[in-house]
Structures are given as structure tokens and as C-alpha cells.
Amino acid sequence: MKAVVVHGKNDLRVEEIADPVCGSGEVLVEMEWGGICGSDVSYWKSGASGTAVLKDPLVLGHEVAGRVVQIGPAAAAELAEGGIRVGSPVTIHPATLAGEYDVAPEITGRTNLWPEVRYFGSAAFQPHEQGGFSRFRSVRPDQLRAVPSNVTTKEAALAEPFGVALHAVSRAGDVSGRTVLVNGCGPIGALAVAAAKAAGADRVVAVDLADAALDIARRMGADETVNPGRGGSLPEDVDVAIEASGAPRALGGVIAAVRRGGIIVQVGNLPAGEVSAALGNIVTREIDYRGSYRFVDEISRALELMADGVDVGPLMTHEVSIEDAVRGFELAADRTTGSSKVMIHLG
Question: Is 255 helix (H, G, I), strand (E, B) or coil?
Fold first, then answer.
């Protein structure tokens, strides 16, 4: 089968690899669509994503959806009451908890904080966890999420990043009736706009240096947009800020925009190592600065919101075939193309 495999820095290939075998306790999914994430681009560009360093060839991709083509005998019993059968459209929760650990009682339900999480298309552990940018992928039945009838598999491939955005908004607590600033309107930021509106935010202000990204944010529900590069000013005294750019130089302005006693959620990945940022207002304004990492099971809520009418279409700016995946990565890495989410047709 064809797969999108990174072998090292600047070495991305579409190549033939062996078809997976569907074990008794597994489900074989024929992939249809995948979305290129910033971490996928990072593995290609630098051979690493954050602290995860590529050591062996890795099939990329964790934003995927397709259809069930085979169910192992043991898996069939587990799926008997879930309504998933051969032919069912599904997306996949990419996480697998590994190892035996004692964790603090207050985080036992926060599976995203488990000490060892193997994630689709990740080089964090050895052996690497192969991703889903391939024709087929075998998974555990508990990883499957049924796609609602009025949601396409192309849209469902974005349930994973939408889950990340929903988790980030949930980390701020109740945002209903609040003013929310979203800084950085790449895919996660644009989805955070939709997540905040879905959670009842009264006013969402989106900030980015790219007009194309701000246009997408407006189509995702932003009430106002600001481009600081064109002289725009951030609002004052917002209740909540979702920082999705991951740019340390932006932190000072975002912090200054938050009211006293407000909340900032950092969902954009900051650079590894030391960073320089103006943080003084966190102290003088008693601002809560909270991290947000992946999600627990918000991927299921993402599918529900899509079924209820949240349109993720504005994000999907480009699509390529699996044979042309390298060009898709080039588009995703170059914001001057106006790209947001580049979709790969895997089928």
C-alpha cells in the first residue's frame, strides 16, 4: 500500500509499504482523508517535533478518517453494541496509553497527561507509533469514533484538531457570555474560534498577521478580527485569551489585553528550550496562565458539533492525492499560499 513516510530531515517520500494485518482484537480501516498538521511538517522540515526526535522511518498523520473494511473476531464482540460495522465511516482517536504508572488522583481522568502516550505519527517513543497517512491502518476498537451520517469523512478528519481546540477552550472554564481573544488563526486558532462560539462566548476577537487566516476566522465565527501588522490594536480587558500562535514575542501583547483576574490558555506549541517573553503583567494583573495539551475525548464532541452544523469547510483550503503528498506538505508549510488545512485524499 502507499504511505507518506518521513525518513529524516527534508526527506519525505510516498512509498509502498506492507499492508497491515488485522488481528483478532483489531479493526482494519481503509483511510479516505488526512489533514496535515504542523507537527507533520516539523518532522519533515527538521526531523523532530518538539522533543520527539526521528530515529527511524515514520508514517506520518494523526488527523484521519475512513471506513471499516475488516473486524477481528475479538473486536467484533466489543463493537457489537456500538453500531460500527464493516462499511461504517469512522475517525480515530490517535492516543494509546502505555506503561504502568501511579498518577495523582486529581488527574486520573486526564488521559492526555498520562506519562507515556503513544500517538499516531509520533517519534516520541521507540519504536515510533506509525501514523495514518496510508491506504490502511489497523486500530483497537476503542479508538474508533463513528462519523454522523451528515458529516463527511473529509470533515471528520478534522475532528482531531477540533478536539484540541475544544480542550483548550474548556481549560478556560465557563466562557459563556464572555469576551474571548484568539491569538493566531492557523487551523487550531480558527477551530478555537468555533469552539468558543459553541461554548457560548459573547464576543470572539481573532488576531493574526495574515489576512487570509483572518478571513477564515471570520467564516468560523469570529465577531471581530485584528491584524497588528496592519496597525490593528488588540482589544483591552478581555476575559479569556486563547494563545494559539506559539510565538513568544506575542505573549506580552496578549497578556496586556487580558483583564485583571482573567485567564490565558496556551495551546500553541512554544519553541523547545528557553524563550524570551514579557510576562510581568501575569503578576500585577493576577492572570491565570494555563497550558493545554491535546485532548481527552473532545474528538467525540467535535463530531457532535459538526453534526449540529459547525462548518469546518473554511479551513480546508487545499487538497492533494496521496501520490502528490509532498506538494501538499509544501503548501502546508508556506503560509503565503493562503493554506490553512491541506487535506490528503488517501483512498
Answer: helix
| Rounded CA separation 248/275 (Å) | 7
Rounded mean pLDDT of 67-90? 92
Q: Cell numbers at residue 247, please?
A: 510565538
What 8-state DSSP symbol labels residue 37?
Answer: -
Query: Rounded CA gap, 127 and 142, in Å?
Result: 22
Q: Check residue 337 and report its DSSP letter.
A: G
Are 225 and 322 contained in the same domain? no
- Which helix or strand (DSSP H or E) is residue 138 part of? strand 136-139
Please report which confidence band the pLDDT of residue 117 belongs to, taking 50, 70 and 90 as the band edges: very high
Q: State the Cα–Cα distance between residues 212 and 246, nearest whole angstrom.
A: 19
All cell numbers assigned to 252: 506580552
Q: Name the residue among 339, 341, 335 with its Cα closest to residue 229.
A: 335
- Asked if 40 contacts 50 with a C-beta cutoff of 8 angstroms, the reply is no
Could you tell me the pLDDT band of residue 76, with boundaries at 50, 70 and 90?
A: very high
Taking the whole predicted model, whether its pTM rises above 0.90 is answered as yes
Domain that holds residue 168: 163-291
pLDDT (tens digit, 9 = 90+) per residue, 209-258? 999 999 999 999 999 999 999 999 999 999 999 999 999 999 999 999 99
Number of independent structural domains in the chain: 2
48: Cα separation from own chain's centroid: 17
What is the rounded distance in angstroms from the CA atom of residue 57 to the CA atom of residue 24? 27
Cell numbers found for residue 104: 495523582
Q: How many CA atoms lie within 13 A of 310 on its CB side?
A: 27
Pair (100, 48) in one structural domain: yes
